[in-house]
Specification:
heterodimer, A: alpha+beta, Calcium-transporting ATPase, cytoplasmic transduction domain A, Rossmann fold, Calcium-transporting ATPase, cytoplasmic domain N, nine-stranded antiparallel sheet, 34 strands, elongated, B: alpha+beta, five-stranded antiparallel sheet, four-stranded antiparallel sheet, 25% helix, Phospholipid-transporting ATPase (chain A), transport (chain A), ATPase_P-typ_TM_dom_sf (chain A), translocase (chain A)
Chain lengths: 1194, 324
């Protein structure tokens, strides 16, 4: 064995994994990862080198490093080294601090996870160990509600047959319970001594990220046992409904499937980022051009004029020829003009984004009180992209809806319950304040349950037979499991929230489901305990769309209770109840119109003999091997005929999250297209579409694509396309003169006024996403106001997002709450996760997370818009400022023999970008608001400029650099003119370079400060402080570095001594500064005010409105109530899984002792099937996802 | 950003309701509309108009007289001579004449100017040692490498003051005569002191500590710059306190001009002299120039009078603004 293991180790190390229980020595040989996780990047010692290395890899930083080296060459160094190193160090330090804090928090969260406690079997007893000390091969004990420590093989549990229940919310977002079962041979290892002796060896696949697949073999006691996903508990799951279980660790730490799934998220960049990089390259090119021009100028100058000057300034050995001198000058000018590529740009942008992220985190209007969750910007680099979103891809369950089902209305025997009427018989809108029915007389009631119509409980109290039967049915006909935590504290574990809602309703109205055994159901009916014999469960499946139970009540009557989709139930009704059917049908439509999920209920009495015969047939059928399911279906059908006696319907509200319809309406007004991608069924999805106003009855057409083959899908898409085209052609034909203009498709798209919606099924989507059809799909989808994709897999969600991202070039945002949305969240430009729900997977993978869908509105329309607006203004100003600052050197070149002499003092060059002008522009970038948040939400149209990229694009860039060039030109030549013949009042000469430098620098600072003042729309105290403060700081520093004291210490570094004082005490200097300021600023000012007056944009208008309303109190915003106008009939949309009926009747999941030991052979046969069935289904799922994985890897 | 707050209670993570965090800081949001901008424009235009008128008036009371003496009068002889390097050793003086039609009343300033002389070349500007000029003894004997190529002479002795700027000092000297109608000539007295900035004379340029030694002894071990006729401690033979690094002419020269055409102050009319209390009277003048050994492209002498010289361009702005 040992020898073999070594060979295996040597040869197949990559292919197989060997883990032996309770044998650390054996497992150590393979050096598997331990259970410590590390998501942090640095530690104390490696921080500096690694971080520095990473930072210097960035182009901008590398550029400045190159500059720095150039400056060390004396022949070309036109600037002292400190002009570059000071900003560079500042930038590096700021970034390093940010990285360090990020990493600190990662360290902390790692530590918290690593230090969780777990129980490990070692040395014959259970020891408490930290998570990080758990090793592969260890046997660990898990208790109820604990997180699973690592990926473990389930050995045994407290439940019978080695079953255990887990919740995989953190892994895949599904909150329903899942069953795992240990191997039969290990399921009785329930005590410690037996477990100590367990020495099985698991041979399995190497670590991978497939959450729903596991293949392995257990070798134990010379036998082989196959292992699959159903026997493994993955890290991140939570144990539920299971007192304890034991398991053997197979994958630990970073090798667990959870961690393998947390791949490096690819770094997302915003479109502004990309544009900025392009622009920086352009600026580089521009810089080199200038360098070449000036270098050539130098060559010419040297050969024409410079020759005469050699007596005063002999050439150095290097400058033997004019050409070479020109070459050196080129490099000198590269250094001189380096500030056109603004080093502080990147770091300032980072600071702004960080600030904007904090504003998102701090926003109280995005804080959800119920779950105590504030919005969180998890990525700090994408904020301005939020202002440019064109497509929103939303998940349904848990995102648009709360995933909470509430029993809200019902119709019993032709009478409707659930609405509240006031004294004038007017329907009252139900709000939080409406008084709800008091259930406190019922000791077993669920306090969370709310119902507002008192007449229903009155009817129960009056012992209305129909009503009682209604609740009895609800209490009996289901597959809910029950956990009684303490006396009276009942917890229902249902696999679908619908069922839970119904059973809870029955419970509160006095029909409490108390206990269940495989053969009985015990209810507490109005305080009396009644036990029903459960004779059969006719399970739910997708074809039947209904489920029934057959019970024998204490009086000995046999009854069949049935619930299901209205259409299905109506077909099977006894014709005698036609009248009732009509009324009920009306009620159903009414409920559906309100967006409720409806369900029809019926029952029938069964004749004893008839039942006996049927039961025998059933037993026989369940033993047949072939066509068992078909035969069963036929039998079920037979007994479910002729339902009658009572026809009721229930309406369950699939509660939308608060404000969803309003948010969708608002986003629609902002031209944001919303696509819903859901794993739900078509009916459910459409139902929600209607209830959240995405689909409306007044839409011209809702196209449903549900073909199964490529051809079908193609045909359906084409015909939908045809339909739109023909209609709009008809419309265009009306005003015929225009028809020619809209010949091409893109223009055509704009002209579609009619509203369409597209609903597409997962199967069809798979075909539609193929290369030959994807364009048709995309074109069609973009013509539609709303798109709903249902039954889609997580991979398809990502593919749809990718499709739009790739072909439309638009900014996409994906929002979801579950692990099935992770791929989509990661693919989209911006991923938003809803947190505060149970699963955190989506929130962890997201860029932004908050608790409620409605906050999306504020995130995009307020924060996104502001961020985009601020960033654009910031960039425009930044480029303007740097051009104005730097190009003065270019003009000066023509007067100083192209010798790369700087105009300004070196210190001014060092400090201009990082001290004198950084804060005002940062202040603007952080606090500026053109329009208040209130108005941003009120006028969603304000969002459109962002989508169309209007505020900062190449044109804007040219304009602002042009302005900067103009300013530098005026700045230089006004001063040139002034200094050409200026003298001081005392007659001393004044045309010296230092006085020129100080005056032009002062003018520059004042001009750019006035400019930022004009660009600031929102002057807070901070802006005032920054703007006035910067000017003040400029003068303070100016006088400080030109003071006697500092000159006394470093005479050669501060040669400007006294210039400022002699210069700025001159009236004429101030006149020059005034002139320059006015001449530089007035044209821009004139243009901008003329633009606002003559061609106002929506923003200007809203601003104007805002100004005029300032004095009045802002009017309370009328909540935009969006009424639903749907008459769409929803179907029975159970998110139900088949197989649970069998699970119950088999008693497999019951506590030991309650199952009667004597079972008929048929029963055993029958019972062994449920697990197979469940597994078969989960295999189907895993097959699909397997294919996806393959697709993903290809 | 996993900020953890230690606030207890059910609303532990609720953000603070501060105006700053909620972006509700009180603010002034001005709007650029015709109503706000135009009045401002008119106001500015008015101000500038007034300023312009005032400037125009003051400018009119200033007089200026410019004489290019490069080849004027007898100076063409010297100019020709300097073109030939072999004559560098010989001195040359010449004479130029001019006349003032109107008297220059008030303070009169006498400038020299150069054309196409690039004091603003980078290597030229850098070629000085402020440490030496401020009187540091270490720099005196060991000038900074910036002074290259004028750090040391062929014998390796340090040059004081070192560097290209000091080396190329303007050393033409002028004597101005007034010839009145009676044919009498008066020497126009010029104040050659106090023509520098206070900070330059007193802070930026200092002689090395003298203690008991004479200035010449202090500068022992250094040599005069290549093109100089006299060492730095003998620059002003009339006034021994105006020698060394604090010589006014040296200081004026060391303040490098920003543009290739520039003027520097040479002297101020000494109005205590009875003949010139009112300034320069009208009449004919002659100027005697001691031509320097180096030929500079073009040399100009400006004579200027006036209280304020303000850029005319300021006026342009008023006109410009008046448009609005």
């Amino acid at each position: 064995m040992n020898a073999k293991a070594v060979v295996v180790d040597g040869v197949f190390k990559k292919k197989e994994r060997h883990v032996k229980a309770n044998a650390r020595d054996f497992n150590d040989k393979f050096s598997y990862a331990d259970n410590r996780i590390k998501t942090s990047k640095y530690d104390i010692f490696t921080f500096l080198p690694i971080n520095l290395f990473e930072q210097l890899q960035r182009v901008a930083n590398a550029y400045f490093l190159v500059l720095l080296t150039l400056q060390l060459i004396p022949e070309i160094s036109s600037l002292s080294w400190f002009t570059t190193i000071v900003p560079l160090v500042l930038v590096l330090v700021i970034t390093a601090v940010k990285d360090a804090t990020d990493d600190y928090f990662r360290h902390k969260s790692d530590q918290q996870v690593n230090n969780r406690q777990s129980q490990v079997l070692s040395g014959g007893s259970l020891q408490n160990e930290k998570w990080m000390n758990v090793r592969v091969g260890d046997i660990i004990k898990l208790e109820n509600n604990q997180f699973v420590t690592a990926d473990i093989l389930l050995l045994c549990s407290s439940e019978p047959n080695g079953l255990c229940y887990i919740e995989t919310a953190e892994l895949d977002g599904e909150t329903n319970l899942k069953v795992r079962q240990a191997l039969t041979i290990t399921s009785d290892l329930g005590d410690i001594s037996k477990l100590m002796d367990f020495d099985g060896e698991v041979v399995c696949e190497p670590p991978n990220n497939k959450l729903d697949k596991f293949t392995g073999t257990l070798y134990w006691r010379d036998s082989k046992y196959p292992l699959d996903n159903g026997k493994v508990l993955l890290r991140g799951c939570v144990l539920r409904n299971t007192e304890w279980c034991f398991g053997m660790v197979i994958f630990a730490g970073l090798q667990t499937k959870l961690m393998q799934n947390c791949g490096r998220t690819n770094f997302k960049r915003t479109s502004i980022d990309k544009l900025m990089n392009t622009l920086v390259l352009w600026i580089f090119a521009f810089l080199i051009c200038m360098g070449v021009i000036l270098g050539m100028g130098n060559t010419i100058w040297e050969s024409r004029i410079g020759r005469n000057f050699q007596a005063f300034l002999p050439l150095s050995e290097l400058q033997s020829s004019a050409v070479f001198s020109g070459f050196l000058t080129f490099w000198s000018y590269i250094i001189n003009l380096n500030t056109v590529v603004p080093i502080s740009l990147y770091v300032s942008v980072e600071v702004l984004r960080l600030g904007h992220s904090y504003f998102i985190n701090w926003d109280r209007k995005m804080y959800h009180r119920q779950t105590d969750t504030a919005a969180e910007a998890r990525t700090t680099t994408l904020n301005e992209e939020l202002g440019q979103v064109e497509f929103v891809f939303s998940d349904k369950t848990g995102t648009l809806t709360q995933n909470i089902m509430v029993f809200s209305k019902c119709s019993i025997n032709g009478r409707k319950y659930g609405d509240v009427y006031d004294e004038f018989d007017q329907k009252v809108e139900i709000t939080d304040k409406t008084a709800c029915v008091d259930f406190s007389s019922n000791p077993l009631c669920d306090r969370g349950f709310k119902f507002y119509d008192g007449s229903l409980s009155e009817a129960v109290k009056l012992e209305d037979a129909a009503v009682q039967e209604f609740f009895r049915l609800l209490a009996l006909c289901h597959t809910v499991m029950l956990e009684e935590k303490s006396e009276g504290l009942l917890v229902y574990q249902a696999q679908s929230p619908d069922e839970e809602a119904l059973v809870t309703a029955a419970r509160n109205f006095g029909f409490v489901f108390r206990a269940r055994t495989p053969e009985t159901i015990t209810l507490c009916e109005m305080g009396r305990t009644v036990t029903y014999h459960l004779l059969a469960i006719l399970d739910f499946n997708n074809v039947r769309k209904r489920m029934s139970v057959i019970v024998r009540n204490p009086q000995g009557q046999i009854k069949l209770y049935s619930k299901g989709a209205d259409t299905v139930i109506f077909e099977r009704l006894d014709p005698s109840s036609d009248d009732l059917m009509c009324t009920t049908s009306e009620h159903l439509s009414e409920f559906a119109g309100e967006g409720l999920r409806t369900l029809a209920l019926a029952y029938r009495d069964l004749d004893e003999n008839h039942f006996e015969v049927w039961m025998k047939k059933l037993l026989f059928a369940s033993t047949v091997i072939e066509n068992r399911e078909d035969q069963l279906a036929v039998l079920y059908e037979e007994i479910e005929q002729g339902l009658k006696e009572m026809l009721t319907t229930t309406a369950i509200e699939d509660k939308l999250q608060e404000g969803v319809p309003e948010t969708i309406a608002c986003l629609n007004l902002a031209d944001i297209k919303i696509w819903v991608l859901t794993g739900d069924k078509l009916e459910t999805a459409m139902n929600i579409g209607y209830s959240c106003n995405l689909l409306r009855d007044d839409m011209n057409e809702v196209f449903v694509v549900s073909g199964h083959t490529l051809l079908e899908v193609q045909q359906q898409l084409r015909s939908a396309m045809e339909h739109i085209h023909s209609l709009s052609r008809a419309g265009i034909a009306g005003d015929a003169d225009k028809s020619d203009m809209f010949a091409d498709d893109s223009a055509f798209e704009e002209t579609v006024i009619a509203e369409y919606a597209l609903v597409i099924n997962g199967h069809s989507l798979a075909h539609a996403l193929e290369p030959q059809l994807e364009h048709v799909l995309l074109d069609l989808a973009c013509l539609c106001k709303a798109v709903i994709c249902c039954r889609v897999t997580p991979m398809q969600k990502a593919q749809v997002v990718e499709l739009v991202k790739r072909h439309r070039g638009a900014v996409t945002l994906a929002i979801g709450d579950g692990a099935n949305d992770v791929s989509m969240i990661k693919t989209a430009h911006i991923g938003v996760g809803l947190s505060g729900q149970e699963g955190m997977q989506a929130a962890l993978a997201s860029d932004y997370s908050f608790a409620q869908f409605r906050y999306l509105q504020r995130l995009l329309l307020v924060h996104g818009r502001w961020s985009y607006f601020r960033m654009c203004h910031f960039l425009r100003y930044f480029f303007y400022k740097n051009f104005a600052f730097t190009l003065v050197h270019f003009w000066y070149g023509f007067f100083c023999g192209f010798s790369a002499q700087t105009v300004y003092d070196q210190w001014f060059i060092t400090l201009f970008n990082i001290v004198y002008t950084s804060l005002p522009v940062l202040g603007m970038g952080l606090f500026d608001q053109d329009v208040s948040d209130h108005n941003s939400l009120r006028y969603p149209g304000l969002y459109k400029p962002g989508q169309r990229n209007l505020l900062f694009n190449k044109r804007q860039f040219f304009l602002c650099t042009l302005q900067g060039m103009g300013t530098s030109f005026l700045l230089f030549f006004i001063h040139y003119g002034a200094f050409f013949a200026m003298a001081r009042e005392d007659g001393s000469h004044f045309s010296d370079q230092q006085a020129f430098a100080v005056t032009i620098a002062t003018s520059l600072v004042i001009v750019v400060t006035v400019q930022i003042g004009l660009d600031t729309h929102y002057w807070t105290a901070v802006n005032h402080l920054f703007i006035w403060g910067s000017v003040a700081v400029y003068f303070v520093i100016l006088f400080a570095i030109q003071s006697n004291g500092i000159f006394g210490i470093f005479p050669s570094h501060f040669p400007f001594i006294g210039t400022a004082s002699s210069c700025l005490s001159e009236k004429s200097v101030w006149l020059v500064i005034l002139l320059t300021t006015v001449v530089c600023v007035v044209p821009g000012l004139a243009v901008s005010f003329l633009r606002v007056d003559l061609f106002p944009t929506l923003t200007d208008k809203v601003r104007h409105l805002q100004q005029s309303r300032r004095r009045k109190r802002p009017p309370e915003r009328n909540p935009r109530r969006v009424r639903r106008t749907s008459s769409h009939r929803s179907a029975y949309a159970f998110s139900h899984q088949q197989g649970y009926g069998e699970l119950i009747t088999s008693g497999k999941n019951m506590r030991t002792g309650t199952v009667s030991p004597a079972r008929s052979p048929a029963r055993t046969q029958h019972s062994s099937n449920w697990m197979e069935n469940i597994l078969k289904r989960s295999n189907e799922v895993s097959c699909i996802s397997d294919e996806q994985h393959k697709a993903a890897t290809v | 950003m996993g900020r953890v707050k230690a606030k207890p209670g059910p609303l532990a993570r609720r953000p603070d309701n501060s105006a700053f965090k909620q972006q509700r800081l009180p603010a002034w949001s001005p709007m650029l509309t015709a109503n706000t901008v135009l009045p401002f424009f008119y106001f500015m235009a008015l101000i500038c108009m007034l300023l312009g008128v005032w400037l125009l008036l003051t400018v009119q009371s200033t007089r200026e007289m410019k004489l290019d003496y490069t080849e004027a009068g007898t100076c063409d002889r010297c100019f020709e001579m300097r073109k030939n390097v072999s004559n560098a050793g010989e001195g040359c003086s010449c004479k130029a004449v001019f006349s003032l039609e109107k008297p220059f009343k008030g303070d009169v300033f006498f400038y020299y100017g150069l054309k196409n002389f690039h004091q603003n070349l980078r290597r030229y500007m850098d070629s000085r040692d402020d440490g030496q000029m401020v009187g540091r003894k270490t720099n005196l004997k060991n000038p900074s490498s910036y002074c290259s190529p004028f750090i040391r002479d062929q014998n390796g002795l340090p040059i004081a003051p070192c560097g290209a700027v000091a080396n190329s000092i303007f050393n033409d000297t002028f004597t101005l005569f007034h010839h009145d109608s009676s044919g009498k000539s008066f020497k126009v007295p010029l104040l050659r002191r106090g023509i520098t900035w206070y900070t330059d004379k007193n802070v930026k340029f200092r002689n090395p500590k003298v203690d008991n030694l004479t200035l010449a002894q202090v500068f022992q071990g250094t040599v005069k710059p290549l093109y100089w006729q006299r060492p730095v401690y003998e620059l002003d033979q009339a006034d021994p306190t105006n020698n060394g690094f604090i010589n006014d002419d040296l200081i004026v020269w060391m303040r490098e001009a920003a543009f290739p055409n520039f003027k520097k102050l040479y002297g101020v009319l000494y109005r205590a002299d009875e003949h010139f209390t009112q300034g320069l009277p009208a009449g004919s003048y002659s100027i005697e120039i001691n031509y320097s050994i180096l030929s500079r492209g073009g040399t100009v002498v400006w004579l200027k009078l006036g209280v304020t010289r303000v850029p005319l361009c300021a006026f342009v702005s008023c006109v410009f603004l008046g448009v609005f």
